[in-house]
Design goal:
The protein has about 140 residues and is an alpha+beta fold. Helices cover about 40% and strands about 35% of the residues. It has a single domain (about 20-140), classed as Nuclear Transport Factor 2, Chain: A. The protein has a six-stranded mixed sheet, with helices on one face.
Length: about 140
């Protein structure tokens, strides 16, 4: 009987210590939905709340590799100066895969509906749980 109680306790401790993948994925989707909303309201700084505010943030796009949160924000503001440029953003998430207990990569598509012409592309982002919040630490978009 003691062995059964010990084994049950060990299993429950082990299962509680691992992050719940479904909860992580739901929280990551919430970050992306927040970004859609902020972008669609031409709130680029609000959109950037989903990114790691660090000089180590990496963004890789058509213009090459950019390092840092501020530089990424500056590039977005330069490329999307008005609401007509940001338009309405919709993400289509095609895959979310766990890398480690505190990191995932997400592959998907973005769709911008805009008066100046629509834009579509693909992305792959890496999110890491930092200070209890999911943040994009690397972004490749084209």
């Amino acid at each position: 009987m003691k062995k059964i109680i010990f084994l049950s306790l060990l299993i429950s401790i082990t299962s509680c210590s691992k992050p719940n993948e479904q909860e992580d994925k739901k929280a990551i989707i919430e970050v992306l939905r927040m970004q859609e909303q902020k972008w669609s309201n031409h709130d680029i700084e609000g959109y950037m709340e989903g990114y790691w505010k660090s000089d180590s943030l990496k963004f890789y796009g058509a213009s090459g590799l950019t390092y840092g949160w501020q530089k990424t924000l500056d590039n977005y503001k330069k490329r999307y100066p008005t609401k007509d440029h940001t338009g309405t953003l919709n993400f289509k998430v095609n895959d979310i895969t766990r890398i480690s207990d505190d990191a995932y990569y997400v592959m998907g598509e973005y769709h911008l509906t805009r008066p100046i012409g629509n834009a579509n592309g693909v992305f792959m982002i890496i999110l890491k749980k930092i200070d209890g919040k999911w943040k994009v630490v690397a972004d490749t978009s084209c």
